[in-house]
């Protein structure tokens, strides 16, 4: 499995995101310039110009026509994917740390940092259907705002059928909110340190978390109970679940921040992406390559490839070899264990 190295950013990657079909890969970094690439070969398609600060987050709608980004310049920006045109700027009182489109593209959300005394706020905006043709009639004011976390919000996602919103924060909690009222439904204490990432399984029945405490957790979203735990020997920045039922794995990535590394730290050099069996929690293997911590991971919706973005400014796209998908079958199917026929 040879990676495709994509070098299009001058500074550290902050988030990468596949579109629904898995043929496009969107990347954002601290260099102010969101970019889009062909996910198959890493060819650069274009760059979206407008932000004046580090871009922390990105989301793309289901039809791959609208792109939403959040930045340290205290704005969320809406873009037309095919043309690269900036459609709308949504100003905020603090850096925007998380964005996400609702199912059906009728709404989107933003979540804020708690810097300079600002409270980490989640805002919901209504999106007009013809926003690509004209921004006239599109309000830049949220229809709902609510507060609850005690620390910076690192990720915010819409729940199934847009009924809930799920967030994670530096306050070490994962919280579930009523999307209509902003009321807190449940608070999940899954970690001892900052929760850096949350991602749904393909059917949204489970949620995987990543934390600076060096673990990833699998949460049942019906009972809100932790059902699996994946222990790593480094702080984690990202975690994802494979969408393939025949290959049930979780991939995690992270590493010790440069400012936190000491010459005696046992966590030095732990910069690879690690695979765990989804059910048995066993470590299956790892993929090396980055020269710094892995800041973000994404598995393609078809499950045949994954990408990682690092502090080194590189995106690495990995396409699984065909043998990867038959390895488990070969290990357990007696047909593969038959002795060779005698000549």
UniProtKB/TrEMBL annotation:
SUPFAM superfamilies for the chain: WD40 repeat-like (SSF50978)
WD repeats: 6-47, 48-89, 146-187, 188-229, 287-317
Domain of life according to the entry: Eukaryota
Keywords from the named record: Cytoplasm, Initiation factor, Protein biosynthesis, Repeat, WD repeat
Cellular compartment(s): Cytoplasm
Assembly behavior: Component of the eukaryotic translation initiation factor 3 (eIF-3) complex.
Function statement: Component of the eukaryotic translation initiation factor 3 (eIF-3) complex, which is involved in protein synthesis of a specialized repertoire of mRNAs and, together with other initiation factors, stimulates binding of mRNA and methionyl-tRNAi to the 40S ribosome. The eIF-3 complex specifically targets and initiates translation of a subset of mRNAs involved in cell proliferation.
Protein name: Eukaryotic translation initiation factor 3 subunit I
Organism in which the protein naturally occurs: Diacronema lutheri (Unicellular marine alga)
């Amino acid at each position: 499995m040879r990676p495709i190295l994509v070098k299009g950013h001058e500074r550290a990657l902050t988030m990468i995101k596949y579109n629904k079909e898995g043929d496009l890969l969107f990347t954002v970094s601290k260099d102010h310039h969101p970019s889009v690439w062909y996910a198959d070969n890493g060819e650069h398609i274009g760059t979206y110009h407008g932000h004046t600060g580090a871009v922390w987050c990105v989301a793309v709608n289901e039809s791959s026509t609208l792109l939403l980004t959040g930045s340290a310049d205290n704005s969320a920006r809406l873009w037309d994917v095919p043309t690269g045109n900036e459609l709308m700027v949504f100003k905020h009182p603090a850096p925007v740390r998380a964005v996400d489109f609702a199912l059906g593209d009728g709404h989107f959300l933003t979540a804020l940092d708690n810097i300079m005394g600002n409270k980490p706020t989640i805002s919901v905006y209504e999106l007009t259907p013809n926003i690509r043709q004209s921004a006239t009639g599109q309000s830049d004011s949220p229809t709902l705002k609510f507060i609850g976390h005690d620390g910076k919000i690192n990720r915010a996602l819409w729940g199934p059928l847009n009924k809930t919103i799920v967030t994670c924060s530096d306050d070490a909690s994962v919280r579930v909110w009523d999307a209509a009222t902003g009321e807190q439904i449940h608070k999940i204490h899954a970690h001892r340190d900052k929760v850096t990432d949350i991602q749904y399984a393909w059917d949204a029945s489970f949620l995987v978390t990543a934390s600076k405490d060096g673990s990833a957790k699998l949460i049942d979203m019906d009972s809100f109970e932790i059902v699996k735990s994946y222990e790593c020997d480094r702080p984690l920045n990202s975690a994802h679940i494979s969408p393939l039922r025949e290959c049930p794995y979780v991939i995690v990535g992270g590493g010790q921040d440069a400012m936190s590394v000491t010459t005696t730290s046992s966590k030095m050099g732990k910069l690879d992406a690690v695979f765990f069996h989804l059910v048995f929690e066993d470590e299956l293997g790892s993929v090396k390559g980055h020269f710094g911590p892995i800041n973000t991971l994404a598995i393609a919706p078809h499950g045949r490839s994954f990408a990682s973005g690092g502090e080194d400014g590189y995106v690495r796209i990995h396409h699984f070899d065909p043998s990867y998908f038959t390895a488990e079958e070969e290990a357990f199917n007696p047909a593969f264990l038959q002795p060779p026929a005698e000549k």
